[in-house]
Amino acid sequence: MEHAKSGPGSWPEMADVVPVPQDDGPSPVVPIAYRDDFREVMDYFRALYLAGERSPRALRLTAEAIEVNPGNYTVWHFRRLILEALDYDLLQEMNFVEKIAECNPKNYQIWHHKRWLAEKLGPDVANKEHEFTMKILALDAKNYHAWSHRQWVLQTLGGWESELQYCNQLLEEDIFNNSAWNQRYLVITRSPLLGGLMAMRDSEVHYTIEAILANPQNESPWRYLRGLYKGENNLLVADERISDVCLKVLKNDWSCVFALSLLLDLLRSGLQPSDELKATLEPIRNSNPEMADADLATAVCCTLQKCDPLRVNYWSWYKTTLSSQIS
Amino acid sequence: MAELAADQHVRYIVTVEKKKDSFESLVMEHIRLNGAYWGLTTLDLLHKLHAVDAAEVVDWIMSCYHPESGGFGGNVGHDPHVLYTLSAVQVLCLFDRLDVLDIDKVADYVAGLQNEDGSFSGDIWGEVDTRFSYIALCTLSLLHRLHKINMQKAVDFVVSCKNLDGGFGAMPGGESHAGQIFCCVGALAITGSLHHIDRDLLGWWLCERQCKDGGLNGRPEKLADVCYSWWVLSSLIMIDRVHWIDKEKLAKFILNCQDKENGGISDRPDNAVDIYHTYFGVAGLSLMEYPGVKPMDPAYALPLDVVNRIFLRK
């Protein structure tokens, strides 16, 4: 077998090591048949691991074991102990883990190893870390591990300078990217350079409305818009731009669920509908004679029951909250 | 509607023979305790737990135990981690064999991983994630040892991960994700702290996860996947909003992901089956009261009769 030739069994420095086979116990619940090359590496790994040997050959062996299975957390644990014992160059280790991460971008152990290294290396590596997550996110812009790492680096080591710009760029590439919207919220609420939500609200409302008008079927900016007024419903209702964007969208498509749903929330929170809004919703009323006498919120809710049949029970429940409010 | 191929799934789990060179055989090795939990819980949900030898399973579980630390590794000879400690405790619960544990030792291991801010690390290396908050709280609760930690701080950390959409992420500021939401809602349910959740807001986000094909996704604009049947449904049940989704369509989606001939369930129709999705598919059907499947507890992720045995006996 080709793999076996280069396996640890053939390494000169391993000549004195006796491999230790895996004990799976009797008739296992989840029996596992191991591939031969995998078995060889792990048998040698077990030998050095059990001996607690923190040496260059053990380090080389962990690299081999990580290559056959980067998810094996015990191998990573042992590798960190060896790195500490050998006082190894952590920048070089960073290069090693980045190569592995590029091939396995959704592996918890790899990202944790990276974080462990970054924490030891400190703020100097913040921007290098950001470059790396950018590289991974260029391949999959929703990779949860990469986003978690990026947020951790920002909040622990810094490097906020161009983060809003990065969000702009990602949203320009894909306005439906919910991860980028989430990151945007983190930036405007937590970046030490931007002054926080209150300072950013006005320009963000503007940005979000533009995004909604470009793609009204995009769930993320509708939620983001509410988030900008989180806990301040009165201000949400008072900002005319909010009811206005609902109106604009509904003029083009009176069955847009997100627009109807935000409008419904506004009405329930006390929005006094303008004549223009009433006129826009007239076709909705006319489409259903039994709604002729209903108040505007109830009519909107009835429409949502029809437009969004998968969630008909949600809208039915919503309607009960309206009638109870009126009574 | 297609029917649940229960017998085939049982056969798949009991006799699952991994082919040499298969990707799964390599990546499963270090998480074998999780695999045991997924397989055995599924068997129990299908009333077939007796198909395995309880004594053998318990022996193997205990061979993954680290008496020095009090934690369990994912397999024999692997380092301890809370991910496998919970699976070990859950499997022992299935067999009603918590008596084999040094309960205080295991509880001390888990409690020892709580950080100053209330969060939990997964092991001595310090990775922090709301998954570990759930795991720690669930483990300690099953062992009747919640008093060993600072519950208020544990709850506060989970609440600090709440987002504008009512959902939760892995860390403060992390994007809402159905898997993390399960962990956070479960953690709050176990500690009696569900009042921190805006149920209507979160319920709406969760029911927005149902796609046109009837399946559930984990985040906006992602494809449906059988595993979210569990993460989303269990969360909706815990906040009492499960009636907001179309259960019939979801059940159909799960049943369409079965390999009806050889057993097993896949992530979406026509993909390869695996033990993980088999568990989540059957567990999802259980939460929808599918006939012939035992009811499951949405917070502890164990059959309801098992959970009742633990808490009502005490």
TrEMBL record, chain A:
PROSITE patterns: PFTA (PS51147). GO terms for molecular function: CAAX-protein geranylgeranyltransferase activity; protein farnesyltransferase activity; protein heterodimerization activity. One of its GO terms (cellular component) is CAAX-protein geranylgeranyltransferase complex. It is an enzyme of class 2 (transferase). It comes from the Eukaryota. One of its GO terms (biological process) is response to water deprivation. Gene3D superfamilies: Protein prenylyltransferase. Keywords: Magnesium, Prenyltransferase, Repeat, Transferase. It holds the Pfam family PPTA. Its cofactor is Mg(2+). Its EC number is 2.5.1.58, 2.5.1.59. It catalyses: geranylgeranyl diphosphate + L-cysteinyl-[protein] = S-geranylgeranyl-L-cysteinyl-[protein] + diphosphate; L-cysteinyl-[protein] + (2E,6E)-farnesyl diphosphate = S-(2E,6E)-farnesyl-L-cysteinyl-[protein] + diphosphate. PANTHER family: PROTEIN FARNESYLTRANSFERASE ALPHA SUBUNIT/RAB GERANYLGERANYL TRANSFERASE ALPHA SUBUNIT, PROTEIN FARNESYLTRANSFERASE_GERANYLGERANYLTRANSFERASE TYPE-1 SUBUNIT ALPHA. Essential subunit of both the farnesyltransferase and the geranylgeranyltransferase complex. Contributes to the transfer of a farnesyl or geranylgeranyl moiety from farnesyl or geranylgeranyl diphosphate to a cysteine at the fourth position from the C-terminus of several proteins having the C-terminal sequence Cys-aliphatic-aliphatic-X. Belongs to the protein prenyltransferase subunit alpha family. This is Protein farnesyltransferase/geranylgeranyltransferase type-1 subunit alpha. It comes from Panicum hallii var. hallii. The lineage of its organism: Eukaryota, Viridiplantae, Streptophyta, Embryophyta, Tracheophyta.
UniProtKB/TrEMBL annotation, chain B:
This is Geranylgeranyl transferase type-2 subunit beta. Binds 1 zinc ion per subunit. Keywords: Metal-binding, Prenyltransferase, Repeat, Transferase, Zinc. Heterotrimer composed of the alpha subunit RGTA, the beta subunit RGTB and REP; within this trimer, RGTA and RGTB form the catalytic component, while REP mediates peptide substrate binding. Belongs to the protein prenyltransferase subunit beta family. Its EC number is 2.5.1.60. It is an enzyme of class 2 (transferase). InterPro entries: PGGT1B-like (IPR045089), Prenyltrans (IPR001330), Ptb1 (IPR026873), Terpenoid_cyclase/PrenylTrfase (IPR008930). GO terms for biological process: gametophyte development; root development. It catalyses: geranylgeranyl diphosphate + L-cysteinyl-[protein] = S-geranylgeranyl-L-cysteinyl-[protein] + diphosphate. Required for male fertility and root tip growth. It comes from Panicum hallii var. hallii. GO terms for molecular function: metal ion binding; Rab geranylgeranyltransferase activity. Its cofactor is Zn(2+). Residues 4-301 form the Prenyltransferase alpha-alpha toroid domain.
